[in-house]
Design brief:
Layout lengths: L1 E7 L2 E8 L6 E5 L12 H4 L5 E5 L17 H14 L6 E6 L1 H12 L4 E7 L10 H11 L3 H11 L8 H11 L4 H13 L5 H4 L7 E6 L8 H9 L3 E6 L6 H4 L1 H12 L1
Parallel strand pairs: 3-4, 3-5, 5-6, 6-7, 7-8
Antiparallel strand pairs: 1-2, 2-4
Amino acid sequence: MQEHWANLNGLKIRYLESGKGNDRHILFIHGLGSSADRWGNIPKSLSANFHTISIDLPGFGESDKPLSIDYTIKTFRDVVIDFLNLLALNDMTSIVGHSLGGYVASEVTMQNKTNVERLVLIDSSGFLKKPTPLLEKYLSVAMNPTNVNVRNIFEQMVSDGTKIPLKLVESFIKRINLPNAKYAFRSTLQNSTNTQIKLDKLKLMDSIPTLIIWGVEDRVIPLQHSELFKKSISNSHVEIIQDAGHAPFTEKPEQVSELIRNFLT
């Protein structure tokens, strides 16, 4: 994966890219407190057939984290649309979004559906009316990160907590201690859980084939939220990943990668 930077109206956005030259594109959008790197080898594994791009949303990863912007879903939606326009990814583009990234991906698709080929939602937010207990713990840990409490919260987010690598813990602590990162995290969580996807707009996405992937043991956003998406998007189907929690693409990467590949091809 090659690292690049985009300038969007003075906002510096980092992204990773592979498979450039392929005429079909996949944009990966990460979740809360994460970054483009969290997708692991999945974008690269798909790059034989697709041009893959993984973005660091503003406020996260190594992208800019200004105090001057509102970290709302609308802000993220508009940044992603501007990013797609900048890279001229206006045709044959599919979007894969995890958690917060799924909410953003849904809003991008509803706003820009003529340019979105297919949509993949992985343990997506968008229907929360308030933070779940585990999200509240996540916020508390992000504000006061230590190796012990970061590992503890990540262990609760997955099916098998013994498989949390030290690198994941250390990279989270490094990112969340960057200037303004804690502000962006708190603001994003508050804004994203105090708003919901409008169902009447979501139903307008029926022309977009949608794959909904969910970890059966997700304790961050419960499994029943997958059914809310399925009922709201008629041209969709759900794949439940066994022995996986909130990030099944990291717990079962080969299985999830194959599901995405089969769906997009």
